[in-house]
Amino acid sequence: MKLDANTRVGKLVDDYPFLLDTLAEYSDKFSMLRNPLLRKTVGQFATLAKAAQLAGVDLTDLLNTVAAAIHEETGEPVEIEAAAADALDAAPGMDPGRIEKLKAIIQGLHEGKAVDLVRQEFAELIQNVDPAEIAAMEQQLIQDGLPEEEIRRLCDVHVAVFRQSLDQSSRPQAPPGHPVHTFQKENAAIAGVIAEIRRLLSEPENIPADALAAQFEQLAQIENHYLRKENQLFPFMEKYGVTAPPKVMWAIHDDIRAQLKALRAAIHNVDTAAVRTQSESLLTTIQEMIYKEENILFPLCLQLLSEEDWRDVYQGEEDIGYALVQPEATWKPSGASSASGPASGFNALPLDTGLLTLEQVNLMLTHLPVDISFVDEHDVVRYYSEAPKRIFPRSPGVIGRKVQNCHPPKSLHLVTRILEEFRAGNRDVAEFWIEIGDRFIHIRYYAMRTIAGQYKGCLEVSQDVTGIRALTGQRRLLDWE
After folding, report:
1. What is the domain partition of the chain in residue ranges?
2. What does the alpha-carbon distance between residue 84 and residue 31 come to, in Å, rounded to a whole number?
3. C-alpha to C-alpha distances, 385 to 170, 317, 361, 367, nearest whole angstrom
């Protein structure tokens, strides 16, 4: 028996089931391996190096602990090799040979090979592709240097190559009320709206503008669907090292948002020609995204996330809202502990100019007439204020997430520059203002520093100043009438 940094945890547990107890005793973080679904996924994704990183433990000590347990239980000698962790281990990996073949096939696409020829190569070399393998392939292509923009550009072509295999795969089912079940209900409703839009557009003469506008207003609810993916599912995928597919999907979300905004403007301006030419591209892009979700994203997430993870996803859904439908039932995860509420009681915090309880601090922050979010000095999101009417949606899934992963690719360079300038001490404030409908939004970022000037993070403050901008004259008396 040989162990090294790249030994897969799932394979170890399959060969030596007693290691479940060994690992759970070694670190509470490994207790999740008792979940059969997660254990199956860990076998595909996590090496001992990755497991040590996730649990925050020393890799050498973990290797020695596992080796000692195997030897003690079986008498089998165990050799620990000093091989370094695979540089691609952060990407989900299954059979390395299959992943390399998939990469070679898709690289042919990016080099200009015809789709039909590439599809034939796939049929000859590999059968029954798994959603996790597609995620692994995209992850490794990006890590090999292929730009994310290029992968996004050919994302639909990738799926076209694998479509027959995906169509033949069974889709795991989620119970009513489960986040995936609700996502799938939304997809069915969105598909219905698309069908009705296509019917209206098929009219040979005048397009019924009012009816078409109403359907596009319905379709605009897809925003909540995408926001829940970005803020709820993607953080947990990142938790397990799956970062490439979320980035590609988020970029496509932004494309859909831009197209939808342009189409609604064309309908408002009664620009029939633009509506006809732009609609098909948008509707096809949305349908392809539904296919990717149903056949790749949701099966992968059902494999990857633990019951505890799904509980956290479920609890954050109401904060964002739903698209066209509501959850079919109240879902209760099995074996997941209930979440604890915010700290309360007389836990006094001695501040520079007073003394407040945790409850008072929480109430003050949630009653400020602004939205605030705090990112620490390591660029990790630590807090956002839970105001009754937030300007920009937030959900618990962002807590503990790298702030760079909380922004769409098109604005990532701005976030990166702000944080770099703050950290270097070159700037203390960054300020923006935008218009959203009839609202005027003022957004400010502040570098937070100690008295000694040490950078401790960034505070984002967003405020709807529409009413403030409209103020004139004076009001000196109370006017509640």
Report:
1. 2-80, 96-168, 179-320, 370-469
2. 26
3. 42, 17, 11, 9
Cβ contacts of 138 within 8 Å, gap of 6 or more: 151, 158, 244, 245, 248
Ramachandran quadrant class, 478 (left: phi over 0; alpha: psi -120 to 50; beta: rest) = beta
For 178, the 3-state DSSP assignment is: coil
Residue 109 carries which side chain, given as an amino acid letter? L
DSSP three-state, residue 433? strand
Binned at pLDDT 50, 70 and 90, residue 14 comes out as confident
**φ, ψ of residue 443 in degrees (nearest 5):** -125, 125
Q: Determine contact, residues 275/266, Cβ cutoff 8 Å.
A: yes
**In whole angstroms, what separates CA 134 from the centre of its chain?**
17
- Rounded Cα gap, residues 451 and 234, in angstroms: 37
Q: What is the pLDDT of residue 152?
A: 63
The DSSP code for 368 is S
Report residue 72 as tokens.
């003690």
Helix (H, G, I), strand (E, B) or coil at 349: strand
Question: At what angle are helices 131-143 and 36-45 packed, to 10 degrees?
Answer: 40
Nearest to 7 by CA among 85, 96, 98, 106: 85
Question: Greatest CA separation found in the chain?
Answer: 87
**Among candidate residues 340, 385, 378, 379, the one with its CA nearest the CA of residue 362:** 385
Residue with tokens 């078409």: 212
Domain 179-320's class? Answer: mainly alpha
* Region for 181 from its dihedrals, namely left if φ exceeds 0, alpha if ψ lies in -120 to 50, beta otherwise: alpha
Q: Residue 21 to residues 11, 16, 47: CA-CA distances in angstroms?
A: 15, 10, 18
With cut-offs at 50, 70 and 90, classify the pLDDT of residue 94.
Answer: very low
Q: Indicate the pTM of the whole model.
A: 0.62
What are the pLDDT digits (tens) for 288-318?
899 889 888 888 888 788 888 899 899 888 8
Q: Could you say which DSSP state residue 405 is in? A: G
Tokens of 51: 């497991």
Contacts of 364 (CB under 8 A, 6+ apart): 356
At the top level of CATH, the class of 2-80 is mainly alpha
CATH architecture of the domain formed by 370-469: 2-Layer Sandwich (3.30)
Task: Compute the chain's Rg from CA coordinates.
Answer: 26
Q: How far apart are CA 16 and CA 169, in angstroms?
A: 30
The two domains 2-80 and 179-320 share their CATH topology (first three levels equal): no
- Pairing relationship of beta strands 354-357 and 371-376 according to DSSP bridges: unpaired
Count of alpha carbons within 13 angstroms of residue 17, beta-carbon side: 1
C-beta of residue 443 within 8 angstroms of C-beta of residue 407: no
